[in-house]
Amino acid sequence: MATKEETEPTAGPETERHEGAAAVVKAAADAVEAEAEDVAFDAAAAHLGTAKYVQGAFFAGGVLVAYLTGKVLAAVWNSLADWPAAINAVPGLLRYAEDERESVTLPIGALVGLLVVVYMARRADIRQWAEEVATELYKVHWPERDVVTTGTIVVLVAGAFATLYVGLLDRVWGFITNLVYGV
Predict the structure, then answer these.
(1) Is 151 left (phi over 0), alpha (psi -120 to 50) or beta?
(2) Which range has the worst mean pLDDT, 22-26, 43-47, 58-62, 169-173?
């Protein structure tokens, strides 16, 4: 019966070379596979990216319109409730207390915001413009975090140096001015 040591191949320079080459080939294959996945993901993101940004922009615009409409309606209602002629004409203005009026005006604002979003989304020219803007923003290459951090540090150091330099010049010229004019 053969021992375990006799059945295992000996690890010589030839075997190590083959194992090293296999590791390099595997690493290259993994890199190619990862690159292919990145390309596939970028293609999918490019296909879906602008549509989701456009829809998100319409949603955010609708929320903003709803909020502003609700607040403006509440402000108008509060102003009218303080005006005696309006109270005589429409006594229902005082049905709700001032702090309860927003519970009525915000749902009205939400309805107005929804209607505005539906109207804007149905207009082909506005939708096309929004898609063009989103496509251009998708093409933007945003800097990496380390680039932004380095740039920020450079700006802060340059600003501090400029501040010290101008402050020193101010002190020197102030001293010279005091000597000349004796103030």
Answers:
(1) alpha
(2) 43-47
